[in-house]
Amino acid sequence: MRRPLRFLPLAAMLALSACTDPAEPAATAPPITTPPPVTTPPPVTRSPAAFNKALHDELVAMLARDQADRNGTPQTETDQARTARLKDIIRVHGWPTFGLVGRDGENAAWAIAQHSDFDPAFQQQAIVLLRDAVAAGQASPGNLAYLEDRVAVAKGEPQVYGTQIGCGPDGPVPATPIRDESGVEQRRAQAGLPTLASYLAEMTTICAQDAN
After folding, report:
1. What are the pLDDT digits (tens) for 74-101?
2. Which of 79, 150, 164, 177 has most Cβ atoms within 10 angstroms of its Cβ?
3. Which of 194, 188, 159, 189 is CA-nearest to residue 174?
4. Measured between alpha carbons, how far is 130 from 153 in angstroms, rounded to an integer?
5. pTM of the complete model
6. How many other CB atoms sit within 10 Å of the CB of residue 155?
7. Contacts of 17 (CB under 8 A, 6+ apart)
8. What is the SS3 assignment for 102?
9. How many CB atoms lie within 10 A of CB 59?
10. What is the pLDDT of residue 47?
11. Are 165 and 173 in contact (CB under 8 A)?
12. How far apart are CA 117 and CA 112, in angstroms?
């Protein structure tokens, strides 16, 4: 009998997922000093979101309950309830960024979206928001890579970064083929992920432990 695929625990995924530093605010242009006097107002810039400790703590606690549930300690809060709360947060604040909730808060938001497989439309929305946040230096490109691959695999499509690797009867196996596998290491490096070879080596150890 073939054993079903088993996937890398979230704790390991969090360790492998990269983070980028928040973007520095743009410098204000120097005032014009040449005559005649110019009274043009300075350019309007969007200030980065202020850190919200209460929201940070809520997201981190939600992730702790998510992990407890998956590690065999049932919780009264379901995946659906966590997803619904994350949707509420996004409606008010947008994607929870580094500046708003810190790196661990952003990781928690991503993990909740990662576990929202029952709501693929929301996962697709999260991808769009994450792309914008990553472009602004306010979210982890590794998190984005994992979510993009997860959504692709759910559709039965090739994955881009090779993050969705499970344990088959003979060891690690991609959940779906890796698109343009010759370029996967470059794409992983751009996302701040370790090499596929090192990832597969880690998965080989995990799969061997799982088989015992």
Report:
1. 999 999 999 999 999 999 999 999 999 9
2. 150
3. 159
4. 18
5. 0.79
6. 10
7. 107, 110, 140, 142, 143, 145, 146, 192, 193
8. helix
9. 28
10. 56
11. yes
12. 10
